[in-house]
Amino acid sequence: MTGSYSLDDRAQLLLRELVQAYTRDGQPVGSKTLLRLSRLDVSSATVRNIMARLEQMGLVAQPHTSAGRVPTVAGYRFFIDSLLEVGEPDAGAMKALSAELSPDKTTQDLVHTATGLLSQMTHLAGVISVSRPAQIEVRHLEFMKLSDRRVLVILVINSDQVHNRVIQVEREYTELELSEAARLIGQYLIGSDFSQALARLREEIRQHRDDVASILESTLEVMGSVCGETGREELLTAGESNLLRFSELQDINKLQELFEVFDQKRELLRILEGCANAEGVQIFIGSESGYDVLEDCSVVGAPYRIGDEVVGVLGVIGPTRIAYDRIIPAVDLTAKILSSALNSAD
């Protein structure tokens, strides 16, 4: 997109100052303010003429006749691709991320922590997609007796993913019966691929005519919910309430639509998929996402990897006027440190 615009040095300087001022204050920027910020040795009339030309090119817009100007999606894109100077990652942030994203944490804990930390660092909504592995191996199964005919199922899959579910059973089971049920399932599942072992285990259950069969069936339902949807992605979010502090996102109808997107997650997953093949940070500004509900928002994402394989994308969502010079390195740094932790843990 940047190749279709030819801006001289003064126009580029004024556009950069306009974007930075609007990012900072959220208010249309007038010619007098731009002249002061740019320190150009020109008249206000010259600045107004340059702004009028930028508006004709579609890089800025004037919300009201008497107001200053604001960047358009095209203006932001030109700014990011041609004018943005991204600083070095903050040393303090790098140290904090490295401490929190420790390799001794489970994969689940790492991705949850990364999402929360990114939201805290940027004061935006954090998002992360998590690819479920195509092959799932059950490593451990345990039953724990609770009160009121409830049993806690503790399931460990692959190297470190721990899942806990409470099931309601038809009667009270003794510890011995629960141990026997876990042993029976373990014979088929532990150390095996879940999908391959499931059919054999169901046949075994059909041959059991005693009361243990009911708890086995309930356990299989739990395992199906945890393990059955292989090869799919899930989305974790954090800090959606941060978006409430931006005036341009406070329209009640827009907010309702935006939070529905977070709740349903399908659209966000599709957008993050567009970042999966990027070498570094990918940015979707407003309408670039392809979704009308995000026309006032930007999505900044970067893939994270185990080895050479991309296993997910993390990023942030905020208004189009986010501080890209600060947000881009934060997303990039978090993705790199998360990748490092996952590879060390693996």
Describe the structure.
- It is a single chain.
- The chain has helices spanning 9-25, 31-38, 44-56, 73-83, 91-100, 107-122, 175-189, 194-207, 212-227, 252-264, 266-273, 324-345; strands at 60-61, 70-71, 125-131, 138-145, 150-157, 161-168, 233-238, 282-285, 297-306, 309-319.
- It is α+β, with helices and mostly antiparallel strands and 346 residues long.
- It folds into 3 domains: 2-83, Arc Repressor Mutant, subunit A (Orthogonal Bundle), CATH 1.10.10; 91-132 and 233-345, GAF domain (Beta-Lactamase, 2-Layer Sandwich), CATH 3.30.450.40; 138-227.
- It has a 5-stranded antiparallel β-sheet with strand order 7-3-10-9-8, with helices on both faces.
- The two termini are 40 Å apart.
Secondary structure elements and pairings:
Layout: H1 9-25, H2 31-38, H3 44-56, E1 60-61, E2 70-71, H4 73-83, H5 91-100, H6 107-122, E3 125-131, E4 138-145, E5 150-157, E6 161-168, H7 175-189, H8 194-207, H9 212-227, E7 233-238, H10 252-264, H11 266-273, E8 282-285, E9 297-306, E10 309-319, H12 324-345
Antiparallel strand pairs: 1-2, 3-7, 3-10, 4-5, 5-6, 8-9, 9-10
Helix pairs in contact: 1-2, 1-3, 1-4, 2-3, 5-12, 6-12, 7-9, 8-9
